[in-house]
Design a protein that fits this description.
With 228 residues, the chain is an alpha+beta fold. The chain has a single domain, classed as outer membrane lipoprotein receptor (LolB), chain A, CATH 2.50.20. It contains 4 helices and 10 strands. A 10-stranded antiparallel sheet has the order 3-2-1-10-9-8-7-6-5-4, with helices on one face.
Length: 228
């Protein structure tokens, strides 16, 4: 009986351990991963008609003088076109006018030229780094290198979900330094699954200024509503 109980316990332990383990995704050539990513992205974009969401922007500059600003925005996506309505804003007018408001304008500009900025072979070179778990999902990790200098392209790593072939995480820096006064910028971008789609959840960027100080920008996306 003791032997039987021991065998059962070992079996149950191994079963739960395997159930909780994150399986390694099947090995695929990087070209196959990128091809499937582009195909699935095209299908998701074609199927994604309209949605609304709410965003919260926070920016803080810890140099001298210290400045901070926040903004809440209602966003609408309609078959590839985005519109924004500022609900509220507080803090430094300088940061609001020259950082947060410009972010909204830049996003609309990037959408207008998405063929030149999307994650495709036309815009990036891809290299396979490895496989790992990210946010409890099995992923392929790819190095992406922009093929040209463009302020909307980036250089860094992307985590591609092995089941859905969607980018769920990005760690990167811009392909072009936006200003002489900026020494470096690092970006971390996360996506979450809403229905059948992977949509932004959060963005955090840290910018170091040459004259001293550091600016931290966070964007939180939520309250998604998928519309027909």
């Amino acid at each position: 009986m003791r032997m039987l109980l021991a065998v059962c316990a070992a079996f149950l332990f191994s079963t739960f351990a395997l159930a909780g383990a994150d399986p390694t995704p099947p090995a695929l050539p990087v070209n196959d991963i990128v091809s499937r990513l582009m195909l699935r992205n095209a299908k998701r974009t074609a199927s994604l008609g309209k949605f609304t969401s709410t965003r919260t922007y926070d920016v803080s500059y810890n140099g001298f003088p210290h400045k901070q600003a926040s903004m809440q925005v209602a966003a609408t996506y309609d078959h590839g076109h985005k519109t924004f309505n500022v609900i509220s804003e507080t803090g430094s007018k300088l940061l609001l006018d020259h950082v947060l408001h410009k972010l909204l304008t830049s996003e609309q500009e990037a959408d207008a030229t998405r063929n030149q900025t999307s994650l495709t072979r036309d815009n990036y070179d891809f290299a396979f780094i490895g496989s790992e778990s990210k946010d409890d999902r099995s992923c392929y990790v790819l190095q992406v290198t922009p093929k040209r200098k463009n302020k909307y392209l980036y250089n860094g790593k992307v985590w591609v979900d092995a089941a859905d072939f969607a980018v769920i995480h990005v760690e990167a820096h811009p392909a072009v330094n936006p200003s002489f006064w900026i020494s470096s910028t690092s970006i971390e971008h996360r996506y979450g699954k809403i229905g059948d789609f992977w949509l932004p959840v959060s963005n955090r960027s840290v910018t170091k200024v040459r004259i001293g100080g550091q600016a931290v920008l966070t964007i939180n996306y939520g309250d998604y509503k998928l519309l027909p």
